[in-house]
Specification:
single chain, mainly alpha, ABC transporter involved in vitamin B12 uptake, BtuC, 12 helices, globular
Length: about 270
């Protein structure tokens, strides 16, 4: 249980850090797609006798490159491309699991099983998390400009293609790290909700990164701890807690909250003296 709590806090912090860029770029659907696209990778890795994280990461990268390739060569909208690719990958994963029965539990892949995490899995999560954080810290200014205004970042000489695929690779790696914690189904919540919550609290990106990371770590730690006493799903507790925090912030944020916006509308509607 202690391992589960600490790993949940670690993964929650990494996902929350990355979620700021996902929120700014508007890639919520991309996170959803990559989290589901790792399913066939897990199945193929089991068949090949490789670590699940390797297969999941390769599948995530393949899905990301497939979406980028289709976007450049078709007139389809990005949301249509994402829907086609992620449903195809998920279907392939389900087909492989049905054709080659194994000790893999589909429920574990989809919903996660942090309580069964082994020491080798913890080491993998730690390596993936530290690598992702290091890459984000080294390139966060370039990624910020790319996510905020891709055309401007291209005009000043940044390699937007490299930044595009770097962000996709980090999304894939983080989805793999979170797979064991909350499963493929709930990864998208950890990659979106903390960043969206912090976005309502501040207009400065540096502060947003700090707030989002603290929310991710706190919800991961408290959610995993609470699941022990509730005897419920650890991933479910973490994501529900993140949603509760988001709803509180949505209502009470001093500048961008619902109540503050409502008060501003009332003031604006009052007749001028």
């Amino acid at each position: 249980m202690l391992k589960a709590i600490l790993v949940s806090a670690l993964v929650g912090g990494v996902c929350a850090f990355l979620s700021c860029f996902v929120t700014l770029k508007g890639w919520s659907l991309m996170g959803d797609a990559l989290s589901h696209a790792v399913v066939p990778g897990v199945s193929l890795a089991w068949l090949a006798g490789l670590p699940f994280s390797v297969g999941a990461f390769v599948a995530g990268l393949l899905a990301a490159f497939s979406m980028g390739w289709l976007k450049e060569r078709t007139r389809l909208r990005e949301d249509a491309i994402i829907g086609i690719v992620f449903t195809t990958f998920l279907a392939v994963g389900l087909l492989l699991l049905s054709l080659y029965p194994s000790n893999l539990n589909l429920k574990t892949i989809i919903l996660g099983n942090i309580l069964a995490i082994s020491d080798s899995d913890i080491l993998q999560v730690l390596v993936i998390s530290l690598t992702s954080i290091a890459a984000l810290l080294m390139k966060w200014r370039d990624l910020l400009l790319y996510c905020f205004d891709e055309a401007h970042s291209r005009s000043i000489g940044l390699n937007t293609r490299f930044l595009h695929f770097l962000l996709l690779a980090l999304l894939s790696a983080t989805a793999v790290a979170a797979l064991q914690t909350v499963g493929a189904c709930l990864v998208v919540a950890m990659l979106v909700t903390p960043g969206a919550t912090a976005y309502l609290l501040t207009d400065r990106f540096g502060r947003m990164l700090i707030l989002s990371t603290l929310i991710g770590i706190g919800c991961g730690f408290i959610g995993a701890y609470a699941s022990y006493f509730l005897n419920g799903s650890t991933g479910g507790c973490i994501v529900v807690l993140q949603t509760v925090v988001f709803l509180i912030v949505f209502a009470l944020a001093p500048k961008h909250g619902f109540l503050a916006a409502r008060a501003q509308r009332k003031i604006a509607a009052q007749p001028q003296a």
